[in-house]
Every structure is written in C-alpha cells, then in structure tokens.
Amino acid sequence: MTAIRPAEPVDLPAIAALDARLTGQAKAAYWQDMLARFAGGPPERHFLVAETPRGVLAGFIAGEVRAWEFGQPPAGWVFAIQVDPKLRLKGTGSALFEALAARFKAQGVTRVRTLVDRKDHLILSFFRAQGMTAGPSLQLDKAL
To answer: Which burial class, exposed, middle or buried, applies to 50 when counting CB atoms under 10 A from its CB (0-12, 13-18, 19+)?
Structure first.
C-alpha cells in the first residue's frame, strides 16, 4: 500500500529522476519550478507524491483548479502524473488521481480535466479507467 502526501522540496531529485527515466529527458529545472509553484503554494494548486512503505517515491501527480478560461466554469486540471513502471497496476496511479480529485472536490469543483496526446495509449487507458471521457473543449494547434 502506498501513502499519498503533499510533495516537498526534498522530493525533487526522485521526481526528476523518475520523469527522466520515463520520458528520456532530464528536466530538473522544470520540476524545481513546478515544486516551487505547486508544493505549498496557493490552495488551488496541488502536487502529491506516493511513497512505498519503505519511503521510496512510487509516483506523483500535479494539478490545479482553473476557472473561466473561454467561459468554462471552475474545474480541476491534472497537469502531470507519473508512476514507477515496476509499481504500475498496483493502484498507485488510481490512488494519486483519487487523492487529487478529492482535493478538487473539497474546493467546490465538480469536474476534473486533463490534456493527453491521442497517440499515448497508456495514459489514455489510465484516464479512461478513472472514468474520464472526451470533454467539452477541442484543442487547436498551429506550427510556428
């Protein structure tokens, strides 16, 4: 069973290492900025980690409540989720998602949203397993 708790600055090396291992890109400065903005930040921002009973980082999730963009009412947005592949299919990702959703609900929002790459079948399957479906918005894109 994993324990879910708010992320702390001391978690940065493990978060950055897990993300680099999974994405193939080292982004320590990005995660440092995310932790600075989300961990212990404004109450609408959340950065949670999951730990194994031995205190090893099993995964993390980050999100925030956003409101009124293009007329949309407040909703919780998931910006990042990663789980150690060795610990997948053991409920860690679901526990992180549920913990974040509970925080969103406590802030009065009734919807949770995210943005995913339509070719990333792993993350699409995960979010669908959490009960998520296509939302009311359509992403538009233009090369610059």
So the answer is: buried
